[in-house]
Amino acid sequence: MGLLVDGEWRDQWYATKKTKGRFVRESAQFRNWITADGAPGPSGEGGFNAESGRYHLYVSLACPWAHRTLVFRNLKGLESHITVSVVHPHMMEHGWEYRTDDEDFRDHINGFRYHHQVYTAADPQYTGRVTVPVLWDKQRRTIVNNESSEIIRMFNSAFDEVTGNRLDFYPEALRTEIDEINDLVYPNINNGVYRCGFATTQEAYEEAFDDLFSALDRVDARLAKHRYLVGNRLTEADWRLFTTLVRFDAVYVGHFKTNLRRIADYPNLAPYLRDLYQQSGVAETVDFWHIKQHYYYSHETINPTRVVPKGPELNLDAHHDRTRFGD
Ligand SMILES: N[C@@H](CCC(=O)N[C@@H](CS)C(=O)NCC(=O)O)C(=O)O
């Protein structure tokens, strides 16, 4: 685990001294947008037209942020238009790695050994964290964007002419409500589990823990009234919550000490998670081997023995009763 400073790799763990033991996530730095006609998006520069075969996703199957982009790639029928390379789940002293001799973990575009080389290829003087997901432009040989919340918005609509898939998970009329839910879910749940796990003081951990479980209680109560977070329509808000929920009982409860309750214990969140998991194209994006290997093996400060637990048993294919709200 480390970061780049002026294009040079430095191996170091997250610094939490200045923030009293609190984990603070750094903002992503590449913020260009792919648009249907190449016009600039809400940030960054233009010229990134939606074209089949032009873009590549670098992901980890363990990472909840990268996972969102894979879910949207499938839901929006982009599998044959956007290629993917997957890092090895063990994130060690060089950060995320590719394996040149293993097809499953190869960088199919640049043949790099380390993910940080993708960043220095885009900006030789890059300073900052080296994260997944990364959306890469094969034509301009640069990073378009490394912020998952923006990549899913691009996937949601920019390629509609290319694919003919017009499913809309961020419809105009529901945006205010979706944004409000994201504002609860992101800091307290998505990032909340990391705030628990990476806290280095008791106080920081307990603060994150209380925020996390009060947000989960609120979301569970909301899901007693309708099938999804925004009424009975699947939206971006559901998919953003999904990638944290699906990792929760397998990893966060133990590894990140988020153990007040499991998702399986919640009356509404448990069947809701199964409902999302069973949507077409979604189960294929979930890989518990990658998920467990990554967290338990890579975070040496949390799990120095690197022993990876065998359980738990998860029955995500089991029946859910969420269709009672209507299809
Ligand atoms: N803002 C980013 C965050 C991505 C992120 O933090 N990814 C983690 C993996 S789950 C990562 O690559 N961490 C490496 C590091 O922080 O050094 C996004 O949502 O796309």
TrEMBL record:
Pfam family, one: GST_N_2
Residues that hold glutathione according to the record: 96, 129-132, 147-148
Entry's Gene Ontology molecular function annotations: glutathione transferase activity
Residue ranges constituting the GST C-terminal domain according to the UniProt record: 171-298
Active site positions: 63 (nucleophile), 194 (proton donor/acceptor)
GO cellular component: cytoplasm
InterPro entries (UniProt xref): Glutathione-S-Trfase_C-like, Glutathione-S-Trfase_C_sf, Glutathione_S-Trfase, Glutathione_S-Trfase_N, GST_Omega-like_C, GST_Omega/GSH, Thioredoxin-like_sf
Site features described as Lowers pKa of active site Cys, chain residue numbers: 252, 295
The protein's name: Glutathione S-transferase family protein
